[in-house]
Amino acid sequence: MTTLIRAQGPRDLLAYVPYRLGYRPRDSVVLVGLRPPRGRIGLVVRVDVSDVAELEHGPQLARTLVGHLVADGAQRTVLVVYTDAPLRADGAAATPVRAAVEHCRDAVEPLHGPVDVWVVSSTGWYALDCREDDCCPPGGRPLHELESSEVGAHMVLAGTALADSREAALRIPRAPADARRRAARAARRVQDRAPAPEGGRPGASGDAACLAEWRSAVDLAAASARTAGSPTAGSVPATVLGRLAAGLGSVPVRDAVLVSLVPGTRDLADRTVRGGDVDAGTGRAIAALVDPVAGVAPDPAVTDPARAVLEAVVGHAPRGCTAPALTLLALVAWWHGDGGRAGRRLEEALAEDPTYRLALLLSSALDAGVPPGWIRGDVRAGAGGFG
Question: Region (Disordered): which ranges (predicted)?
Fold first, then answer.
């Protein structure tokens, strides 16, 4: 079930942005795309102030970000700056932040006209261009106004938690020691049944069983959203998570899981896991992610429960067998346009297995700045001036 949240004005929008990101931004610029017909919030992208303020590459970065918003259907853009720099006073301390704002304005205004810029500091919030003390006092309006807004109250009542930092939001917590031990024992039993020539991977029957357990775990995570507000894997047994960690070491299982994230591919996933259609199945799934013509946008109803299960696998898995799950998490994040999260998961995957081929391929795509196919296709069709 999806709950519609209406942001009636800037106060509600500013209250919502941290929940959309999952943490309270600092030293950040956030661009919020507003889509028709009534200014619905669309794509939200965040970038470090220092990156978009950079004189040589900052303007191009801003144009690229705005291009993604346009591809998502935005007809207006709101700019939110999270900083304690004194933007209303003269002085060098605010120079980088002002540069970041101007680079973003220069990218937005040719398409959407004048852009509203809001500033959120550690002590208050205000409109950058407002000089009316009654509306935006020198120290900004108090932050508790955002927390007590209708949107803020809704998110709190829904049990949605905010991390204190981006680092904390990206961290996958480790499961309790007892749960990890049970998962490790289950993983060893799967690996012990695998034929040695295949490097410890289960055979075809084991692969099919692993795919079935994957689907059951994802169904449990999806069902949890009805009570928890968002998918969680808390009801998936540690032993199942351990078996999934070991099973994902089989390329057919990993590829079948990847295929299963693409709409309308259930039969293809079954064929992939049996080894009869591995190349074709993977090729179709990869095309859905990367091809500007065949690319499709991810469906959160599918990818959110899958991400919850994969994160639980990583949190329970014994060291040395999380590279496949981490790489799949990176793919999901990149498909959603979350390059920062994708990069973090790839760093973790390659730290565990520097030779893991799929992680290396995706890392090359991120290094080259290649966006998902559905974004490139939309940009090609309707926003070709960006890039």
Answer: 173-207
Domain borders along the chain are 10-167, 172-377
Position 139 scores a pLDDT of 80
pLDDT at residue number 196 = 37
pTM: 0.71
pLDDT digits (tens, 9 = 90+) for 102-138: 999 999 999 999 999 999 998 899 999 888 877 888 7
Q: 81, 125 in Cβ contact below 8 A?
A: no
